[in-house]
Amino acid sequence: MATEEKRKEEIKKAFFDYAAHNELSAFDTPGYFARQILPDAPFFAKANVITDLIESGIMVIRGDRWFIRK
Question: Which of 14, 24, 34, 52 could join 66 in a cystine, given CB atoms 3.0 to 4.6 angstroms apart?
Answer without folding.
Answer: 24
